[in-house]
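Re: [ENG-882] Designed sequences occasionally contain unexpected residues at chain ends

Forwarding the minimal case from QA. C-alpha coordinates:
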Protein backbone atom coordinates (compact mmCIF):
# COMPACT_ATOMS: atom_id res chain seq x y z
CA UNK A 1 0.00 0.00 0.00
CA UNK A 2 1.30 3.44 -0.92
CA UNK A 3 1.93 5.67 2.08
CA UNK A 4 -0.57 8.50 2.47
CA UNK A 5 0.70 11.89 3.62
CA UNK A 6 -1.05 13.34 6.65
CA UNK A 7 -1.64 16.56 4.70
CA UNK A 8 -3.60 14.79 1.98
CA UNK A 9 -7.28 15.40 1.47
CA UNK A 10 -9.40 12.46 2.60
CA UNK A 11 -11.97 10.68 0.48
CA UNK A 12 -14.29 10.43 3.46
CA UNK A 13 -14.51 12.04 6.87
CA UNK A 14 -16.84 10.47 9.41
CA UNK A 15 -17.16 13.11 12.10
CA UNK A 16 -18.93 13.52 15.42
CA UNK A 17 -18.65 9.87 16.45
CA UNK A 18 -17.69 7.87 19.52
CA UNK A 19 -14.90 5.62 18.30
CA UNK A 20 -14.84 2.16 19.88
CA UNK A 21 -11.15 1.32 20.12
CA UNK A 22 -10.89 -2.47 20.52
CA UNK A 23 -7.09 -2.18 20.69
CA UNK A 24 -7.03 -0.12 23.88
CA UNK A 25 -10.45 -1.09 25.17
CA UNK A 26 -11.68 2.51 25.28
CA UNK A 27 -14.29 4.75 23.69
CA UNK A 28 -13.40 8.29 22.66
CA UNK A 29 -15.11 11.10 20.81
CA UNK A 30 -13.62 12.16 17.50
CA UNK A 31 -13.58 11.62 13.76
CA UNK A 32 -12.16 9.12 11.28
CA UNK A 33 -10.59 10.10 7.95
CA UNK A 34 -10.49 7.56 5.12
CA UNK A 35 -8.46 7.51 1.91
CA UNK A 36 -8.15 4.80 -0.75
CA UNK A 37 -10.25 2.41 1.28
CA UNK A 38 -8.03 2.64 4.36
CA UNK A 39 -8.25 4.57 7.60
CA UNK A 40 -5.99 7.58 7.23
CA UNK A 41 -6.11 9.28 10.62
CA UNK A 42 -8.21 10.57 13.49
CA UNK A 43 -7.41 14.16 12.55
CA UNK A 44 -10.10 16.38 11.13
CA UNK A 45 -9.19 17.40 7.55
CA UNK A 46 -10.70 18.32 4.22
CA UNK A 47 -12.57 15.47 2.57
CA UNK A 48 -14.47 14.84 -0.63
CA UNK A 49 -17.35 13.55 1.47
CA UNK A 50 -18.29 14.28 5.08
CA UNK A 51 -20.64 12.03 7.07
CA UNK A 52 -22.08 13.30 10.34
CA UNK A 53 -22.24 10.45 12.87
CA UNK A 54 -24.52 12.46 15.14
CA UNK A 55 -22.74 11.30 18.28
CA UNK A 56 -23.28 7.61 17.59
CA UNK A 57 -20.75 4.81 18.08
CA UNK A 58 -18.36 3.75 15.33
CA UNK A 59 -17.22 0.13 15.58
CA UNK A 60 -15.11 -2.09 13.29
CA UNK A 61 -16.99 -4.09 10.68
CA UNK A 62 -18.25 -7.34 12.15
CA UNK A 63 -16.59 -10.61 11.13
CA UNK A 64 -18.28 -14.01 11.07
CA UNK A 65 -15.48 -16.39 12.06
CA UNK A 66 -17.05 -19.53 10.59
CA UNK A 67 -19.94 -19.78 8.17
CA UNK A 68 -21.29 -21.98 5.44
CA UNK A 69 -22.82 -19.58 2.94
CA UNK A 70 -24.84 -22.44 1.54
CA UNK A 71 -26.90 -22.75 4.74
CA UNK A 72 -28.44 -19.35 4.06
CA UNK A 73 -29.81 -20.91 0.87
CA UNK A 74 -28.48 -17.84 -0.93
CA UNK A 75 -25.81 -17.54 -3.59
CA UNK A 76 -22.66 -15.59 -2.63
CA UNK A 77 -24.11 -12.40 -4.13
CA UNK A 78 -27.42 -12.83 -2.33
CA UNK A 79 -25.54 -13.59 0.87
CA UNK A 80 -23.58 -10.35 0.62
CA UNK A 81 -26.80 -8.42 -0.01
CA UNK A 82 -28.30 -9.98 3.11
CA UNK A 83 -25.42 -9.42 5.52
CA UNK A 84 -24.10 -5.97 4.67
CA UNK A 85 -27.10 -4.02 6.07
CA UNK A 86 -26.49 -5.78 9.42
CA UNK A 87 -22.89 -4.61 9.58
CA UNK A 88 -21.12 -7.87 8.74
CA UNK A 89 -18.34 -6.84 6.38
CA UNK A 90 -16.16 -9.97 6.38
CA UNK A 91 -16.94 -13.68 6.61
CA UNK A 92 -14.63 -16.65 6.93
CA UNK A 93 -16.47 -19.06 4.66
CA UNK A 94 -15.96 -22.79 4.52
CA UNK A 95 -17.49 -23.93 1.19
CA UNK A 96 -17.63 -27.46 2.52
CA UNK A 97 -21.17 -27.99 1.31
CA UNK A 98 -20.70 -26.91 -2.30
CA UNK A 99 -17.30 -28.65 -2.39
CA UNK A 100 -18.98 -31.94 -1.50
CA UNK A 101 -21.06 -31.37 -4.62
CA UNK A 102 -18.46 -30.05 -7.08
CA UNK A 103 -15.05 -30.22 -5.41
CA UNK A 104 -12.28 -27.92 -6.62
CA UNK A 105 -14.63 -26.25 -9.09
CA UNK A 106 -16.78 -25.06 -6.18
CA UNK A 107 -13.88 -23.62 -4.17
CA UNK A 108 -12.43 -21.81 -7.16
CA UNK A 109 -15.90 -20.61 -8.10
CA UNK A 110 -16.39 -19.07 -4.67
CA UNK A 111 -12.98 -17.40 -4.80
CA UNK A 112 -13.86 -15.91 -8.17
CA UNK A 113 -17.32 -14.86 -7.01
CA UNK A 114 -15.90 -13.18 -3.90
CA UNK A 115 -13.77 -10.87 -6.03
CA UNK A 116 -16.95 -9.33 -7.48
CA UNK A 117 -18.61 -8.56 -4.16
CA UNK A 118 -18.65 -5.50 -1.85
CA UNK A 119 -18.43 -7.80 1.18
CA UNK A 120 -15.15 -9.56 1.91
CA UNK A 121 -15.44 -13.35 1.65
CA UNK A 122 -12.36 -15.15 2.90
CA UNK A 123 -12.20 -18.86 2.13
CA UNK A 124 -11.14 -21.94 4.07
CA UNK A 125 -10.33 -24.99 1.95
CA UNK A 126 -12.68 -27.81 2.98
CA UNK A 127 -10.70 -30.48 4.80
CA UNK A 128 -13.11 -33.39 4.64
CA UNK A 129 -14.58 -33.96 1.20
CA UNK A 130 -16.19 -36.37 1.73
CA UNK A 131 -16.65 -35.90 5.46
CA UNK A 132 -15.96 -39.60 5.99
CA UNK A 133 -14.84 -42.40 3.67
CA UNK A 134 -18.19 -44.10 4.33
CA UNK A 135 -20.16 -41.47 2.42
CA UNK A 136 -21.11 -40.87 -1.22
CA UNK A 137 -20.29 -37.28 -2.11
CA UNK A 138 -20.12 -35.64 -5.50
CA UNK A 139 -16.39 -34.99 -5.31
CA UNK A 140 -13.17 -35.69 -3.44
CA UNK A 141 -10.55 -33.19 -2.28
CA UNK A 142 -7.32 -35.09 -1.62
CA UNK A 143 -4.26 -33.59 0.06
CA UNK A 144 -2.72 -32.64 -3.30
CA UNK A 145 -5.91 -30.76 -4.24
CA UNK A 146 -5.88 -29.00 -0.88
CA UNK A 147 -2.26 -27.92 -1.32
CA UNK A 148 -3.06 -26.25 -4.64
CA UNK A 149 -6.04 -24.38 -3.24
CA UNK A 150 -4.16 -23.20 -0.15
CA UNK A 151 -1.87 -21.14 -2.36
CA UNK A 152 -4.63 -18.66 -3.29
CA UNK A 153 -4.36 -15.36 -1.35
CA UNK A 154 -8.11 -15.37 -0.64
CA UNK A 155 -7.65 -18.63 1.27
CA UNK A 156 -6.96 -18.25 5.00
CA UNK A 157 -6.43 -21.90 5.79
CA UNK A 158 -7.95 -25.35 6.16
CA UNK A 159 -11.64 -25.69 6.97
CA UNK A 160 -13.07 -27.51 9.96
CA UNK A 161 -11.25 -30.81 10.46
CA UNK A 162 -14.18 -33.07 11.29
CA UNK A 163 -12.16 -36.25 11.05
CA UNK A 164 -10.85 -35.96 14.59
CA UNK A 165 -10.10 -39.70 14.83
CA UNK A 166 -7.85 -39.23 11.79
CA UNK A 167 -6.07 -36.36 13.52
CA UNK A 168 -5.66 -38.18 16.83
CA UNK A 169 -4.31 -41.29 15.09
CA UNK A 170 -2.15 -39.17 12.75
CA UNK A 171 -3.63 -40.51 9.52
CA UNK A 172 -1.09 -39.66 6.77
CA UNK A 173 -3.62 -38.08 4.39
CA UNK A 174 -5.21 -36.00 7.14
CA UNK A 175 -1.83 -34.83 8.43
CA UNK A 176 -0.67 -33.97 4.90
CA UNK A 177 -3.53 -31.46 4.67
CA UNK A 178 -2.84 -29.99 8.10
CA UNK A 179 0.92 -29.76 7.62
CA UNK A 180 0.57 -28.12 4.21
CA UNK A 181 -1.58 -25.45 5.85
CA UNK A 182 0.78 -24.88 8.76
CA UNK A 183 3.76 -24.66 6.40
CA UNK A 184 2.12 -21.62 4.82
CA UNK A 185 1.44 -20.03 8.20
CA UNK A 186 -2.30 -20.40 7.73
CA UNK A 187 -5.03 -21.45 10.17
CA UNK A 188 -6.53 -24.91 10.66
CA UNK A 189 -10.12 -24.91 11.90
CA UNK A 190 -11.41 -27.63 14.19
CA UNK A 191 -14.63 -29.54 14.69
CA UNK A 192 -14.49 -31.86 17.68
CA UNK A 193 -17.82 -32.17 19.51
CA UNK A 194 -17.51 -33.72 22.99
CA UNK A 195 -13.81 -34.46 22.50
CA UNK A 196 -11.93 -34.02 25.77
CA UNK A 197 -8.90 -35.14 27.75
CA UNK A 198 -5.99 -36.82 26.00
CA UNK A 199 -7.91 -37.01 22.75
CA UNK A 200 -8.38 -33.24 22.68
CA UNK A 201 -4.74 -32.73 23.61
CA UNK A 202 -3.67 -34.84 20.64
CA UNK A 203 -6.07 -32.93 18.42
CA UNK A 204 -4.76 -29.51 19.52
CA UNK A 205 -1.12 -30.59 19.33
CA UNK A 206 -1.57 -31.39 15.63
CA UNK A 207 -2.02 -27.67 14.99
CA UNK A 208 -5.81 -27.28 15.19
CA UNK A 209 -6.44 -23.65 16.15
CA UNK A 210 -10.21 -23.27 16.56
CA UNK A 211 -13.33 -25.21 17.49
CA UNK A 212 -16.93 -24.08 17.09
CA UNK A 213 -18.41 -27.21 18.66
CA UNK A 214 -18.18 -26.19 22.33
CA UNK A 215 -21.48 -26.90 24.06
CA UNK A 216 -20.48 -26.50 27.73
CA UNK A 217 -18.36 -23.96 29.65
CA UNK A 218 -15.99 -26.77 30.59
CA UNK A 219 -15.35 -27.61 26.94
CA UNK A 220 -14.69 -23.96 26.14
CA UNK A 221 -12.22 -23.52 28.98
CA UNK A 222 -10.40 -26.75 28.11
CA UNK A 223 -9.92 -25.67 24.50
CA UNK A 224 -8.63 -22.24 25.49
CA UNK A 225 -6.22 -23.83 27.98
CA UNK A 226 -4.80 -25.90 25.11
CA UNK A 227 -4.10 -22.80 23.03
CA UNK A 228 -7.20 -22.94 20.83
CA UNK A 229 -9.77 -20.29 20.03
CA UNK A 230 -13.37 -21.11 20.94
CA UNK A 231 -15.73 -19.99 18.18
CA UNK A 232 -19.09 -19.46 19.85
CA UNK A 233 -21.89 -20.49 17.51
CA UNK A 234 -25.34 -18.97 17.30
CA UNK A 235 -26.99 -20.45 14.22
CA UNK A 236 -30.47 -21.58 13.25
CA UNK A 237 -30.36 -25.07 14.74
CA UNK A 238 -27.38 -24.88 17.12
CA UNK A 239 -27.39 -21.95 19.55
CA UNK A 240 -24.59 -22.23 22.06
CA UNK A 241 -23.91 -18.71 23.30
CA UNK A 242 -26.15 -18.59 26.38
CA UNK A 243 -24.94 -22.00 27.53
CA UNK A 244 -21.32 -20.89 27.20
CA UNK A 245 -21.51 -17.42 28.77
CA UNK A 246 -21.02 -18.78 32.34
CA UNK A 247 -17.61 -20.02 31.18
CA UNK A 248 -16.49 -16.74 29.61
CA UNK A 249 -14.85 -14.47 32.16
CA UNK A 250 -12.67 -11.46 31.37
CA UNK A 251 -9.59 -13.66 31.19
CA UNK A 252 -11.02 -15.78 28.38
CA UNK A 253 -12.77 -13.34 26.07
CA UNK A 254 -9.66 -12.67 23.97
CA UNK A 255 -9.68 -16.34 22.94
CA UNK A 256 -13.33 -16.32 21.92
CA UNK A 257 -14.81 -15.67 18.48
CA UNK A 258 -18.39 -15.39 17.24
CA UNK A 259 -19.88 -17.31 14.34
CA UNK A 260 -23.17 -18.38 12.81
CA UNK A 261 -21.97 -21.61 11.16
CA UNK A 262 -25.36 -22.47 9.65
CA UNK A 263 -28.18 -19.92 9.53
CA UNK A 264 -31.21 -19.51 7.26
CA UNK A 265 -31.79 -16.23 5.42
CA UNK A 266 -35.14 -15.82 7.17
CA UNK A 267 -33.48 -16.11 10.58
CA UNK A 268 -30.98 -13.41 9.65
CA UNK A 269 -33.64 -11.05 8.32
CA UNK A 270 -35.71 -11.48 11.48
CA UNK A 271 -32.98 -11.69 14.13
CA UNK A 272 -29.95 -9.99 12.63
CA UNK A 273 -26.46 -11.36 12.18
CA UNK A 274 -23.15 -11.00 14.07
CA UNK A 275 -24.20 -7.66 15.55
CA UNK A 276 -27.25 -9.35 17.05
CA UNK A 277 -25.02 -12.03 18.59
CA UNK A 278 -22.86 -9.28 20.09
CA UNK A 279 -26.04 -7.76 21.56
CA UNK A 280 -27.06 -11.13 22.99
CA UNK A 281 -23.63 -11.55 24.57
CA UNK A 282 -23.85 -8.11 26.17
CA UNK A 283 -27.34 -8.84 27.49
CA UNK A 284 -25.98 -12.07 28.97
CA UNK A 285 -23.31 -10.15 30.90
CA UNK A 286 -20.30 -9.80 28.60
CA UNK A 287 -18.65 -6.36 28.64
CA UNK A 288 -19.63 -4.49 25.44
CA UNK A 289 -16.08 -3.85 24.25
CA UNK A 290 -15.11 -7.46 24.94
CA UNK A 291 -18.16 -8.62 22.98
CA UNK A 292 -17.19 -6.37 20.06
CA UNK A 293 -13.64 -7.77 20.16
CA UNK A 294 -15.06 -11.28 19.88
CA UNK A 295 -16.74 -10.18 16.65
CA UNK A 296 -13.84 -8.21 15.21
CA UNK A 297 -10.26 -8.08 16.50
CA UNK A 298 -10.10 -11.62 17.90
CA UNK A 299 -11.19 -13.16 14.61
CA UNK A 300 -8.88 -10.94 12.58
CA UNK A 301 -5.93 -12.00 14.72
CA UNK A 302 -6.87 -15.67 14.71
CA UNK A 303 -6.90 -15.81 10.90
CA UNK A 304 -4.02 -13.42 10.24
CA UNK A 305 -6.21 -10.68 8.80
CA UNK A 306 -4.01 -7.88 10.09
CA UNK A 307 -5.62 -5.32 7.80
CA UNK A 308 -8.97 -5.29 9.65
CA UNK A 309 -10.70 -5.94 12.95
CA UNK A 310 -9.95 -2.54 14.53
CA UNK A 311 -10.27 1.16 13.79
CA UNK A 312 -6.66 2.27 13.34
CA UNK A 313 -4.59 4.03 10.66
CA UNK A 314 -3.66 1.73 7.78
CA UNK A 315 -6.49 -0.75 8.37
CA UNK A 316 -9.38 -1.31 6.00
CA UNK A 317 -12.15 1.19 6.44
CA UNK A 318 -14.74 -1.50 7.19
CA UNK A 319 -16.90 0.40 9.66
CA UNK A 320 -20.31 0.24 11.29
CA UNK A 321 -22.21 3.10 12.89
CA UNK A 322 -24.53 1.99 15.73
CA UNK A 323 -26.87 3.95 17.99
CA UNK A 324 -25.71 2.30 21.20
CA UNK A 325 -23.66 -0.51 22.67
CA UNK A 326 -26.74 -2.48 23.62
CA UNK A 327 -28.57 -3.61 20.49
CA UNK A 328 -25.83 -2.85 17.91
CA UNK A 329 -28.31 -2.03 15.18
CA UNK A 330 -26.36 -0.86 12.13
CA UNK A 331 -27.32 2.66 11.08
CA UNK A 332 -24.61 2.91 8.40
CA UNK A 333 -22.07 0.44 7.00
CA UNK A 334 -18.90 1.09 5.02
CA UNK A 335 -16.62 -1.41 3.29
CA UNK A 336 -13.25 -0.03 2.22
CA UNK A 337 -14.63 3.44 2.85
CA UNK A 338 -17.66 3.03 0.58
CA UNK A 339 -21.11 3.46 2.08
CA UNK A 340 -22.83 0.18 1.23
CA UNK A 341 -25.84 0.21 3.55
CA UNK A 342 -27.83 2.66 5.62
CA UNK A 343 -30.82 2.17 7.93
CA UNK A 344 -31.08 -1.52 7.10
CA UNK A 345 -30.96 -1.17 3.31
CA UNK A 346 -28.27 -1.43 0.66
CA UNK A 347 -27.20 1.90 -0.78
CA UNK A 348 -25.50 0.21 -3.74
CA UNK A 349 -26.93 -1.94 -6.54
CA UNK A 350 -27.49 -5.53 -5.43
CA UNK A 351 -24.46 -7.63 -6.44
CA UNK A 352 -24.91 -10.44 -8.97
CA UNK A 353 -23.41 -13.89 -9.44
CA UNK A 354 -22.09 -15.39 -12.66
CA UNK A 355 -25.10 -17.07 -14.37
CA UNK A 356 -23.37 -20.45 -14.72
CA UNK A 357 -22.26 -20.74 -11.08
CA UNK A 358 -22.59 -24.44 -10.06
CA UNK A 359 -25.63 -25.54 -12.07
CA UNK A 360 -27.10 -28.95 -13.04
CA UNK A 361 -25.70 -31.00 -10.18
CA UNK A 362 -28.62 -33.29 -9.21
CA UNK A 363 -28.65 -36.76 -10.79
CA UNK A 364 -30.68 -39.63 -9.30
CA UNK A 365 -31.66 -43.15 -10.29
CA UNK A 366 -35.41 -43.86 -10.61
CA UNK A 367 -37.09 -43.76 -7.18
CA UNK A 368 -40.25 -45.60 -6.09
CA UNK A 369 -41.86 -46.22 -2.71
CA UNK A 370 -40.33 -49.72 -2.72
CA UNK A 371 -36.93 -48.07 -2.19
CA UNK A 372 -38.03 -47.11 1.33
CA UNK A 373 -38.81 -50.60 2.60
CA UNK A 374 -37.03 -51.18 5.92
CA UNK A 375 -36.01 -54.70 7.08
CA UNK A 376 -36.52 -55.22 10.81
CA UNK A 377 -37.08 -59.00 11.14
CA UNK A 378 -37.10 -59.00 14.94
CA UNK A 379 -39.74 -56.27 15.19
CA UNK A 380 -37.53 -54.41 17.67
CA UNK A 381 -36.20 -51.28 15.94
CA UNK A 382 -33.32 -48.92 16.53
CA UNK A 383 -34.14 -45.31 15.58
CA UNK A 384 -32.57 -41.87 15.40
CA UNK A 385 -33.75 -39.79 18.38
CA UNK A 386 -33.57 -35.99 18.36
CA UNK A 387 -32.92 -33.40 21.07
CA UNK A 388 -34.47 -29.90 21.28
CA UNK A 389 -32.46 -27.25 19.40
CA UNK A 390 -29.46 -29.57 19.06
CA UNK A 391 -27.54 -31.25 16.25
CA UNK A 392 -26.60 -34.25 18.34
CA UNK A 393 -28.93 -37.24 18.38
CA UNK A 394 -29.62 -40.16 20.70
CA UNK A 395 -30.31 -43.84 20.15
CA UNK A 396 -33.94 -44.82 20.72
CA UNK A 397 -35.81 -48.08 20.37
CA UNK A 398 -39.37 -49.06 19.43
CA UNK A 399 -41.37 -52.20 18.79
CA UNK A 400 -42.87 -52.20 15.28
CA UNK A 401 -45.17 -54.39 13.21
CA UNK A 402 -43.55 -56.22 10.31
CA UNK A 403 -44.88 -58.19 7.33
CA UNK A 404 -43.95 -61.66 6.16
CA UNK A 405 -41.09 -60.27 4.12
CA UNK A 406 -39.49 -58.97 7.33
CA UNK A 407 -39.95 -55.33 6.32
CA UNK A 408 -41.55 -52.56 8.33
CA UNK A 409 -44.04 -50.37 6.44
CA UNK A 410 -45.50 -47.13 7.67
CA UNK A 411 -49.08 -48.08 6.80
CA UNK A 412 -48.90 -50.78 9.51
CA UNK A 413 -47.33 -48.45 12.08
CA UNK A 414 -49.38 -45.26 12.56
CA UNK A 415 -47.42 -42.45 14.18
CA UNK A 416 -44.05 -43.72 12.99
CA UNK A 417 -41.74 -41.79 10.65
CA UNK A 418 -39.13 -43.01 8.22
CA UNK A 419 -36.08 -41.09 7.11
CA UNK A 420 -34.02 -41.87 4.02
CA UNK A 421 -30.94 -40.55 2.25
CA UNK A 422 -30.90 -40.96 -1.56
CA UNK A 423 -27.63 -40.62 -3.53
CA UNK A 424 -27.95 -37.70 -5.95
CA UNK A 425 -24.53 -37.11 -7.53
CA UNK A 426 -23.95 -40.14 -9.75
CA UNK A 427 -27.39 -41.76 -9.98
CA UNK A 428 -26.12 -44.87 -8.22
CA UNK A 429 -29.46 -45.73 -6.65
CA UNK A 430 -27.94 -46.07 -3.17
CA UNK A 431 -30.54 -45.37 -0.50
CA UNK A 432 -30.19 -45.58 3.28
CA UNK A 433 -33.41 -45.96 5.28
CA UNK A 434 -34.07 -45.78 9.04
CA UNK A 435 -36.71 -44.91 11.59
CA UNK A 436 -36.90 -41.32 12.77
CA UNK A 437 -37.99 -40.02 16.16
CA UNK A 438 -41.79 -39.48 16.31
CA UNK A 439 -40.91 -36.43 18.45
CA UNK A 440 -40.06 -34.70 15.15
CA UNK A 441 -43.83 -34.69 14.74
CA UNK A 442 -44.16 -35.12 10.97
CA UNK A 443 -47.57 -36.37 9.87
CA UNK A 444 -49.70 -36.25 6.76
CA UNK A 445 -46.96 -36.40 4.13
CA UNK A 446 -43.26 -36.08 3.45
CA UNK A 447 -40.52 -33.46 3.26
CA UNK A 448 -37.39 -33.82 1.11
CA UNK A 449 -34.38 -31.58 0.64
CA UNK A 450 -31.10 -31.68 -1.27
CA UNK A 451 -29.49 -29.88 1.66
CA UNK A 452 -28.17 -32.94 3.44
CA UNK A 453 -24.96 -32.42 5.36
CA UNK A 454 -22.29 -33.02 4.40
CA UNK A 455 -22.39 -35.04 1.20
CA UNK A 456 -25.63 -33.32 0.19
CA UNK A 457 -27.54 -36.22 -1.14
CA UNK A 458 -31.33 -35.98 -0.85
CA UNK A 459 -32.73 -36.53 2.64
CA UNK A 460 -36.45 -37.23 3.03
CA UNK A 461 -38.72 -37.92 5.99
CA UNK A 462 -42.34 -38.97 5.87
CA UNK A 463 -45.19 -40.94 7.37
CA UNK A 464 -45.80 -42.83 4.13
CA UNK A 465 -43.46 -44.23 1.51
CA UNK A 466 -45.41 -42.99 -1.53
CA UNK A 467 -45.14 -39.32 -0.55
CA UNK A 468 -41.47 -39.82 0.26
CA UNK A 469 -40.83 -41.07 -3.29
CA UNK A 470 -42.80 -38.20 -4.82
CA UNK A 471 -40.89 -35.63 -2.79
CA UNK A 472 -37.49 -37.04 -3.81
CA UNK A 473 -38.42 -37.09 -7.50
CA UNK A 474 -39.56 -33.45 -7.37
CA UNK A 475 -36.33 -32.33 -5.70
CA UNK A 476 -34.49 -33.87 -8.65
CA UNK A 477 -36.84 -32.17 -11.13
CA UNK A 478 -36.03 -28.81 -9.54
CA UNK A 479 -32.29 -29.53 -9.67
CA UNK A 480 -32.27 -29.09 -5.92
CA UNK A 481 -34.55 -27.64 -3.33
CA UNK A 482 -37.01 -28.28 -0.51
CA UNK A 483 -40.25 -30.06 -1.35
CA UNK A 484 -43.31 -30.76 0.80
CA UNK A 485 -45.80 -33.43 -0.36
CA UNK A 486 -49.13 -34.56 1.06
CA UNK A 487 -51.32 -37.34 -0.37
CA UNK A 488 -49.40 -37.34 -3.63
CA UNK A 489 -49.66 -33.60 -4.22
CA UNK A 490 -46.85 -31.06 -3.98
CA UNK A 491 -47.91 -28.60 -1.30
CA UNK A 492 -44.96 -26.22 -1.43
CA UNK A 493 -41.39 -26.04 -2.67
CA UNK A 494 -38.30 -23.87 -2.76
CA UNK A 495 -35.99 -24.16 -5.77
CA UNK A 496 -32.27 -24.33 -5.00
CA UNK A 497 -30.64 -24.71 -8.41
CA UNK A 498 -27.16 -23.51 -7.39
CA UNK A 499 -25.33 -26.73 -6.41
CA UNK A 500 -28.69 -28.02 -5.21
CA UNK A 501 -28.07 -25.87 -2.13
CA UNK A 502 -28.70 -22.22 -2.95
CA UNK A 503 -31.25 -20.00 -4.62
CA UNK A 504 -30.47 -17.39 -7.25
CA UNK A 505 -33.28 -15.17 -5.94
CA UNK A 506 -32.85 -12.17 -3.66
CA UNK A 507 -32.83 -12.56 0.15
CA UNK A 508 -36.35 -11.21 0.66
CA UNK A 509 -37.85 -13.68 -1.82
CA UNK A 510 -35.97 -16.62 -0.37
CA UNK A 511 -36.78 -15.64 3.21
CA UNK A 512 -40.47 -15.31 2.34
CA UNK A 513 -40.52 -18.83 0.91
CA UNK A 514 -38.64 -20.22 3.90
CA UNK A 515 -41.18 -18.59 6.23
CA UNK A 516 -44.03 -20.11 4.23
CA UNK A 517 -42.48 -23.56 4.26
CA UNK A 518 -41.66 -23.28 7.96
CA UNK A 519 -45.23 -22.30 8.81
CA UNK A 520 -46.55 -25.24 6.79
CA UNK A 521 -44.08 -27.57 8.45
CA UNK A 522 -45.34 -26.67 11.91
CA UNK A 523 -49.02 -25.96 11.26
CA UNK A 524 -49.94 -28.48 8.57
CA UNK A 525 -47.32 -31.21 8.94
CA UNK A 526 -47.16 -31.02 12.74
CA UNK A 527 -43.38 -30.71 13.09
CA UNK A 528 -42.30 -29.74 16.60
CA UNK A 529 -41.26 -26.15 17.20
CA UNK A 530 -38.32 -27.39 19.27
CA UNK A 531 -36.65 -28.28 15.95
CA UNK A 532 -35.81 -26.26 12.87
CA UNK A 533 -37.96 -28.24 10.44
CA UNK A 534 -35.48 -28.29 7.57
CA UNK A 535 -32.08 -27.75 9.16
CA UNK A 536 -32.73 -30.49 11.73
CA UNK A 537 -33.60 -32.83 8.88
CA UNK A 538 -30.52 -31.89 6.89
CA UNK A 539 -28.20 -32.66 9.82
CA UNK A 540 -29.58 -36.15 10.28
CA UNK A 541 -27.27 -37.17 7.42
CA UNK A 542 -24.09 -35.80 9.03
CA UNK A 543 -22.08 -38.76 10.40
CA UNK A 544 -19.53 -36.70 12.30
CA UNK A 545 -21.84 -35.40 15.05
CA UNK A 546 -22.96 -38.02 17.63
CA UNK A 547 -24.70 -40.31 18.03
CA UNK A 548 -26.78 -41.96 15.28
CA UNK A 549 -26.89 -40.51 11.76
CA UNK A 550 -27.95 -41.84 8.35
CA UNK A 551 -26.04 -42.01 5.04
CA UNK A 552 -26.82 -43.52 1.64
CA UNK A 553 -25.16 -46.68 2.99
CA UNK A 554 -27.19 -47.00 6.17
CA UNK A 555 -27.41 -46.10 9.85
CA UNK A 556 -24.10 -44.92 11.31
CA UNK A 557 -22.93 -45.00 14.95
CA UNK A 558 -20.69 -41.93 15.17
CA UNK A 559 -19.17 -42.70 18.57
CA UNK A 560 -18.13 -46.22 17.61
CA UNK A 561 -17.44 -45.28 13.99
CA UNK A 562 -19.39 -48.15 12.42
CA UNK A 563 -22.62 -48.93 10.63
CA UNK A 564 -25.39 -50.49 12.70
CA UNK A 565 -28.64 -52.19 11.77
CA UNK A 566 -32.08 -50.67 12.19
CA UNK A 567 -32.95 -54.06 13.66
CA UNK A 568 -31.93 -53.68 17.30
CA UNK A 569 -31.54 -57.44 17.66
CA UNK A 570 -29.22 -57.85 14.68
Amino acid sequence: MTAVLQTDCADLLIENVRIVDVLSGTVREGCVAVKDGRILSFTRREAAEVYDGAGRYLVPGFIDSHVHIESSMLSPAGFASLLLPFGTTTVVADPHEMANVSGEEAVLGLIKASQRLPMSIKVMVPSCVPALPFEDSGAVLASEDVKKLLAYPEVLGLGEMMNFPGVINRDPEVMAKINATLALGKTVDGHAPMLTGTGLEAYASAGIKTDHECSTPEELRERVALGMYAAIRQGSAARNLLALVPGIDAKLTRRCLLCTDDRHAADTLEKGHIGAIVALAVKAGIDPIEAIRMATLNTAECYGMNDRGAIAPGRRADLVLVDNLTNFKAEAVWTEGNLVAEKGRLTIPAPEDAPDFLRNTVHIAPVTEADFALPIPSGHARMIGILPHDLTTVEKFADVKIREDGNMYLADNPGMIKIAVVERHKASGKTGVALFDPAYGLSGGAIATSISHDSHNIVVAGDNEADMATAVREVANLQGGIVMVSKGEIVAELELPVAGLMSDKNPDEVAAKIRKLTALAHDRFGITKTADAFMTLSFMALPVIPYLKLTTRGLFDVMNFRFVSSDAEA
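QA comment: On inspection the terminal residues look reasonable. The mean pLDDT is 95. Proposing we downgrade this to a documentation issue.
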